[in-house]
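Why do we care about 3D structure at all? Because function follows from shape, and shape follows, mostly, from sequence. That is the central idea of this module. The next example makes it concrete: a single protein chain, its amino acid sequence, and then its structure expressed as tokens.
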Amino acid sequence: EYAKEALELSREMDNNLGKAQACNILGLIEWKIGAYPKAVDYYLKALDFATLAENKVEIAKSNNYLGLVYWKTGNYPKSINYFYTSLEIKQALNDNYEVALTLNNLSNIHNEIGDYQHAIQFALKALEISEQLDSKYTLGRALGNLGISYLKTKETAKALEYLERALSVKKESGEVKGLAYTLIDVGNIYFQVNKFDTAKQYYDEALSIMTSINDAHGLSIVLNKFAKILFEQKRFKDAISYLDKSNVFAKRENLKENIKENYLLYSKIYEMQGVNKLALINYKYYSELKDSLVNENINSRIKELNINYETNKKIKENELLKQRNTIQSLELEKQKHYTYVLLIAALLGLFVIGGVILRYNYLRNTKEITEKKNEKIEKQKLELKQLNATKDKFFSILAHDLKNPFQTILGYSSLLLTDYSKMSEDERANVIVQINNVSKSSYQLLENLLSWANTQTGRIEYSPKEYNLEKLTKETVQLVKVQADRKFQKIEVQINSNITVSTDRNIFSTVLRNLLTNAVKFSKINGSILIDAFKNEKNIQLMVEDNGSGIRPEMDNDDRLVKIIFDLQKLREL
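And the structure:
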């Protein structure tokens, strides 16, 4: 119940590591009571959650537990693969106790499939590590595995030596379940040398333990062992009775390997009794189950290969996606650096221009100082004053026009930086498009400002041309559209499409853009901004109207305020 509560709490907190740990505990509980299908379900979920959490300890545990379940249910290829995966992770983590556990598991399963040489190798490695750690549990298992291996290879003396040592260690450590299985193994040695009474004593003790801990797998095995003794003693009726009991536990937990062995012994008993029909039927069941286990192992291996293929495919796709995202990030960084370089270059250019002008004035004044000293001094003062005014005006416009675009770029880039993994592809693409659009608009603003600065320093002459006023106004509106969209404001251009005007394009755009920026800044969210034009005999007046708070009555006559009506014929003076 505590494990289930922990799982629910981890789900509420979206804690993948907590979910993995809880599922591993629940799987272990189901495994210990012989509920193997439920255990598999929990372990697979634990493996998924541990992978999401990138926690190697829990990943190793889940693989080891899955290996145990598939071993108990007779799916040896799948079991070995999970054990090997677990072993590699544990060795990488340098967790020697866990390494010893998995080495013992591999030794167990290789004993069962008849690969005794590898079983001995795994057990000896586990024995060495266990002695270094002074771990009674893993030491007892390693000794037991060696005893089984030597029993299978008919080296009875060695087998009995290791198994007796295993019994001693397990009794000392209190490892009850392992003790019961080792008692069965010792009984098998005495059964092999026809000492049935001694074998029965060990089986009796094992049966008592298996019953007390309700181990269905162990009960099925030990009851089969009693049946074999009774078969050798030709007590066929009693042997069948024990086989029936063994089959109850084996079928309840779907222990196919145990069921198969029971059918084989049924067949031998009925053959000895001369009941050939039943002998044949049970042998047929034995053969079918044997073939079924072989086919299941083959199908399981094929399925596993398919899963590995799909997993590798997904890994490659994820790597490709990461590469694309990295390229996009580099492109964005490149654009940002390019913008910074342009800004720095513009500022440096302005200072260089100022320096050149100062140097030129200084040389000119020095040359003519004897003739027009006072005149040159006054002129120099005037030029310095104009230069400072130009510089101040440029910085004011620069801060005014570029602040909002850079805030937008920083906002979107911060969004990518903090929420990148949470955003969908469409959301990321949309943010990149917005950054690109704002960068283009900022670049256009910078070009216009530089043109204006050059005009003020005399490098570019005022160059009026004929333009369609509506079209020229709409082009400028696009430069502030991003700021307006952020406040859900609507900019309407209601200029007559037939009106033309003679003006300098860059200067017009700079002045109108400043007006629109102020209108956006001081207008309310969801507000509207109206642009209209009025033509009279001599000139054209352009009006920018917004629904902001407006000018307070007491400031209406303040000379510092400028009305939003401009004589486009005199635009150069502004």
